[in-house]
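Dock iron/sulfur cluster; give full complex structure.
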Amino acid sequence: MLMIPEPVFSAQSTDWKRSLSESFRTIQELLEYCELDVNCVDQGSEAGFPVRVTKYYASLIEKGNPQDPLLLQVMPDSQENQRVEGYSLDAVGDISAMTVPGLIHKYHNRVLLTVTSACPVHCRYCFRRHFPYSDARLDTKVDSPVLNYLAAHTEINEVILSGGDPLMLSDRKLSELITRLNDIPHIRYLRFHSRLLSVLPDRVTDSFIQTLHQFNGKVTLVTHINHPEEISVLNQHAFKLLSKQGFQLFNQSVLLKGVNNNSNTLVKLSYKLFDSNITPYYLHKLDKVHGAAHFDLATDQTCKIYSLLLQSLPGYLVPKLVNELTGRLSKTPVQCI
Ligand code: SF4
């Protein structure tokens, strides 16, 4: 039996699906929980992208602080409704790279599967907030187009499970998918891109760990953490459990104005990740998606921050500063001179 400390928000909440069902789904609920007056927040209309926040994540938000960096990531803002030139519905060219419904093939030897549209939190800057999930339904039955594509493309050695968040799937569904991937011998690496790992640590159960061990090759977990306050004793415990089980953990962050756009915050984040057995991997410039322009930071400001990171951290704790640009064959390093 895994020894995971009780969640800080509820001494009873030990079942991850129940925890998920207790998430906040309205602005009002979230404001009340954060002890904020409805008039002190510039609420947006949710712009077709409703509020969703786990209670665990909300428990890390400072009460009574409308500028809390964790709150800003999940609270709708009226600026989301502005249309800004240069920002689009498909910021990184996912749709043109979807060779089979649910399979995005951009880079030579790795593909991404959108296994679900569901997420445990709705991040206001999300590059897939307008993604047409109904056109990207993944069918992984034997002989499905996706599995046939993977089997035919022997250059593909890595499959990335994404979404939405792949850990929203039950262990049974993950297990079925892993079984199918195990049947394709050239798929040697399996990667999960997941925000859920940090915002719902109850998800890391014995059963989940056993499910990951079913994959014949190497499993990598990529967390999505933008601010050091997103790491607590509780999710740190979950990360360490996974790492002790032999899974490699990396983190990707997005540089967000008002949230983490200063070097002290990012230095602290890198050390906290390191203390959690997670290697800082990418620091993404914001993907230019409609509704998120107010989070964007100019390249010269970005480079100033990055230069301070280089000075303040050992090289192994400096994430790569990258852009994801439509049509490119890899991530594009941001050129700072
Ligand atoms: S968890 Fe990931 S996919 Fe879901 S809203 Fe946040 S950034 Fe987007």
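Observed: The chain has two domains: 16-81, 98-333.
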